[in-house]
Specification:
- This is ATP/GTP-binding protein.
- Pfam families: ATP_bind_1.
- The protein has helices at 17-24, 38-41, 83-90, 109-117, 137-144, 160-181, and strands at residues 3-10, 30-35, 53-65, 69-75, 95-100, 122-127, 152-155.
- By secondary structure, it is an alpha/beta fold.
- Strands 2-3-4-1-5-6-7 form a seven-stranded mixed beta sheet, sandwiched between helices.
- The longest helix has 22 residues, at 160-181.
């Protein structure tokens, strides 16, 4: 497959969207990280004490797969209050990679629900944090209420190969979906 595709990287705050895009991007990623403010603290649940910044508009990166397919990666802000920007970023997207954290699966429900509402095809990547509990695939699918055909992979957003494999899983799913629709 050759060409270019707009891909969203979505998920709740602190799940690793900025990290994944920075890990795989072949260009210097654009990031709109800002220091978490006192005003925002009233609205946003802090993920962990060490997290002091958050994406306030988008993250952007680019990766070429197989030498011919360019993916333009758009990372969305994780907070509900940024949903209007999130919807704008979804325009023209071929698909999305939804990152989830097993330490707080419930936080991922909104992002997955928004993708379903916008009819954006997606796959799910469980970001394997060092202190997260591992779950079997059936339990994860059930907890996230995923359809049987929705790809589910485990990745480490800090590792290039692992993150690329998550994107390849999404692209394979998108190709299958487009082929079946033809």
């Amino acid at each position: 497959m050759a060409g270019a595709a707009k891909i969203l990287v979505v998920g709740p705050m602190g799940v690793g969207k900025t990290t994944l895009i920075g890990t795989v991007s072949e260009i210097k990623p654009l990031s709109t990280e800002a220091t978490m403010s006192q005003a925002g603290a009233r609205l946003d649940t802090k993920v962990r004490p060490s997290k002091t910044t958050t994406t306030v508009a988008l993250d952007f990166g680019r990766i070429t797969l197989g030498g011919e397919l360019v993916l333009y990666l758009f990372g969305t802000p994780g907070q509900q209050r940024f949903l209007p920007a999130w919807k704008d970023l979804a325009r023209g997207a071929l698909g999305a990679l939804a990152l989830v954290d097993t330490r707080d699966l419930e936080a991922s429900f909104d992002a997955i629900g928004h993708l379903e509402d916008l009819d954006v095809p997606f796959s799910v990547a469980v970001n394997a944090f060092p202190d997260s509990t591992q779950h079997n695939e059936d339990d994860l699918r059930s907890a996230l209420d995923l359809l049987p055909h929705t790809p589910l992979v485990i990745c480490d957003a800090r590792e290039h190969k692992s993150s690329v494999q998550a994107l390849i899983s999404l692209v394979s799913h998108l190709i299958e979906t487009l082929t079946e629709a033809s």
